[in-house]
Write a structure and sequence with these properties.
Distance between the termini: 76 Å
Strand order of the largest sheet: 1-2
Number of strands: 4
Shape: globular
Largest sheet: 2 strands, antiparallel
Radius of gyration: 31 Å
Structural class: mainly alpha
């Protein structure tokens, strides 16, 4: 099977890390009887020869040898080789054009052509003795054997003969892919799926068929899809539990599985169904409710993780599912409880229906108030973090205990901020910790930033001495504190305490904190003549962060900053969309003319969803003048998809930012 392997000039071929002279060794190791050697070789193939899905000239040179290995039944793990070939023949990324370069974004088809040339092998492998090979070959057949009637017949025959449930599931995925890939021949595949979705087939297989029908032919689904899916899930779980109970021997593996139960196959089945339902949020909530009320804790754990995707991506009435998440918090299974805590912590005030459960867990388990990773300082534990993020004042006493201890989590202040004035009792402890931040330490900014956030949130006017201490030595001696100087200045201004800091603030008017210092000085004495020239100067700086700060402070000055109107108009008309929006907001607050502002908002609303929250805030300030953009507001409220649900946008603020946008949009229409 390796005939001719050394006739290839591997040294002249390339992979992701340079010369491909190491590839023959990896190919031979893929056929080794040693599992560790095979794993290392497969890792080499994916990390170099087929790095991040790219196809190099060395990748193409490997394809004939990979097919040759598939023809030898004595080669172990041939299923992984089929999967590698499927990946090589799939969509590609990278930059084409130079010798050895990977295919371009559209692909020049070299990988696909190379694999398709050997696709006849997949027809043989569909009946291979190894179920892992049969499972991988099912999808490969559909992707590369360009004979739809024959492919459908092969899938039909295999489905009739197959006895391995995992392979049957792969065959149903292949039928769904076939229906998508060959619409003219889809009816035959859909008929097979419809047949598999009904009795007498096993519950798990029926669920799989329903998921594929939901993806490819929603019109062929039963009217009672969600109740039927929940019933099938429960039947499948009961069968799985009976199989586990009837296991003949109590092996170590079985004991571990009881302690850490999982059901990846079940997760895939339900994940497919959730994905297929898409924007049918009410149906997905009903399905999730069925999962979360299952007698099987494994089903509930899968449901918890699926709920995270639903909450992040879609808007809906989630009080019911959130209460059910709260019901998982008293589970004896750590995995289920921890999963529920993790999801609830992402919801912020949407987690309020689970606050009682969170409080009960926090009360019963003080050991969960903090979490420590190896060689890392303690972090705030998930249950207490989630409770604080709901804004529930019951989080205050345990937070106070942590603040009074010797090793309070560094980021605790950020979570205190969600409690606002309800956490006023924590002000002395926060102030005390801020006063102990070592001024010259490299960690000064990291330690101070969360505490400053909390002090602003609780409105602690008594913290002025500690704030001034952080600015001592300005402008030349701030050192590590320079990273939070702007935050300190904003805190002084927000607390209405900038006047005592005026001498220090004036020394900062020639530093990178000039705009923040000027704004704080204006908030203290309203002396426009003293600060406007500084802000006009900062407005023309090349650094975008400096300009952004100047724009914010000019907006604070309002009509007193009319001299900035020409430059604000220029900034609102060019540059990155977020900068244009910020400039337009300031333009309104200074000039009070909506005409140059509304077109900027209309364009940005569609061009960059991240700008919708600041735009909505400004539209709220515009009042009746915002009426020409109410069509955007109305359309936003009809969308099921969160405006933060785009690739790379997920994070702590995704859900609360979208909920804030919805609240402001509703408020704008109420005012009409």
């Amino acid at each position: 099977m390796f005939t001719g392997i050394y006739e290839v000039d591997w040294a002249s071929l390339r992979h992701a890390h340079g010369s491909a002279e190491d590839v023959p060794g990896w190919l031979r190791a893929l056929a080794s009887t040693d599992a560790a050697e095979r794993a290392t070789a497969l890792d080499g193939m994916y990390s170099a020869v087929h790095h991040q899905g790219r196809v190099y000239d060395s990748t193409l040179a490997c394809v004939p040898f990979l097919f040759a290995m598939l023809a030898r039944e004595e080669v172990p793990d041939r299923g992984s080789i089929v999967e590698l070939l499927v990946s090589i023949g799939g969509e590609t990324t990278g930059t084409a054009g130079s010798p050895g370069a990977p295919e371009g974004p559209a692909g020049d088809g070299r990988g696909r052509a190379a694999v398709s040339a050997g696709a006849e092998a997949f027809a043989v492998l569909a009946g291979d003795p190894d179920p892992a090979v049969r499972r991988a070959a099912a999808g490969a057949l559909v992707r590369f054997l360009e004979e739809p009637p024959r492919v459908l017949e092969l899938l039909r025959r295999r489905l009739r003969a197959e006895r391995d449930d995992c392979v049957v599931l792969a065959l149903m995925e292949a039928l769904g892919l076939f229906a998508h890939r060959y619409p003219a021949h889809a009816d035959g595949a859909l008929d097979l799926l419809a047949e598999q979705s009904a009795p007498p087939y096993a519950p798990g297989l029926r669920l799989a068929a329903l998921g594929q029908l939901a993806l490819r032919a929603p019109g062929r689904l039963p009217a009672d899809l969600v109740p039927a899916a929940v019933r099938l899930l429960q039947q499948r779980s009961a069968q799985r539990l009976r199989r586990q109970e009837h296991a003949a021997t109590d092996t170590l593996v079985r004991r571990i599985r009881r302690l850490r139960p999982s059901d990846e196959q079940g997760a895939v089945l339900l994940r497919t169904l959730h994905s297929a339902l898409g924007d049918r949020v009410d149906d997905r909530i009903a399905l999730l409710t069925g999962q979360l009320t299952s007698p099987d804790p494994v089903d509930r754990c899968n449901a918890v993780w699926m709920s995270a995707g639903l909450f992040r991506g879609w808007r809906g009435a989630y009080d019911g599912p959130v209460r059910l998440l709260g019901a998982q918090l008293d589970s004896e299974q750590d995995r289920l409880r921890d999963a529920a805590v993790s999801v609830l912590a992402e919801l912020f005030d949407l987690a309020a229906p689970a606050a009682d459960g969170l409080h009960a867990l926090v009360t019963a388990r003080p050991d969960l108030w903090t979490h420590r990773w190896e060689r890392c300082p303690p972090a705030l534990g998930g249950p207490l973090k989630a409770l604080a993020r709901t804004g529930d004042p019951r989080a205050v006493p345990p937070l106070a205990q942590l603040l009074a201890g010797p090793a309070a989590p560094v980021g605790l202040g950020r979570e205190v901020a969600h409690l606002g004035r309800a956490a006023a009792a924590l002000a002395p402890a926060l102030r005390h910790r801020l006063g102990r931040v070592p001024l010259a330490s490299p960690a000064a900014a990291r330690l101070a930033a969360p505490l400053l956030t909390a002090i602003r949130a609780v409105g602690d006017e008594d913290a002025v001495p500690e704030l001034l201490r952080l600015l001592s030595g300005a402008p030349d001696g701030l050192g590590p504190r320079d990273a939070v100087a702007g935050q300190v200045i904003e805190t002084l201004a927000e607390l209405g305490a900038a006047a005592p800091a005026a001498p220090l603030l004036r020394t900062l008017l020639r530093t990178r904190h000039a705009a923040a210092a000027a704004g704080a000085l204006w908030s203290a004495d309203g002396d426009t003549a003293a600060v406007l020239p500084v802000l006009l100067r900062e407005l023309t700086r090349p650094d975008p962060d400096t300009r952004r700060s100047a724009v914010q402070q000019l907006a604070r000055l309002g009509p007193a900053a009319r001299a900035a109107l020409p430059e604000l108009r220029r900034l609102a008309g060019s540059g990155p969309v977020p900068e244009r929006v910020a400039a337009a907001c300031a333009l309104w607050r200074v000039g009070r003319d909506p005409d140059p502002v509304l077109p900027v908002f209309r364009t940005a609303w569609t061009a960059d969803p991240r700008t919708r929250v600041p735009i909505a805030r400004c539209l709220t300030a515009l009042g009746p003048a915002a009426a020409p953009l109410h069509d955007l507001i109305t359309a936003e409220l009809t969308r099921a998809r969160r405006h933060t649900a785009y690739e790379g946008a997920y994070g702590d603020r995704g859900i609360p930012d979208d909920e804030e946008l919805l609240r402001m949009c509703r408020g704008l229409l109420v005012e009409v």
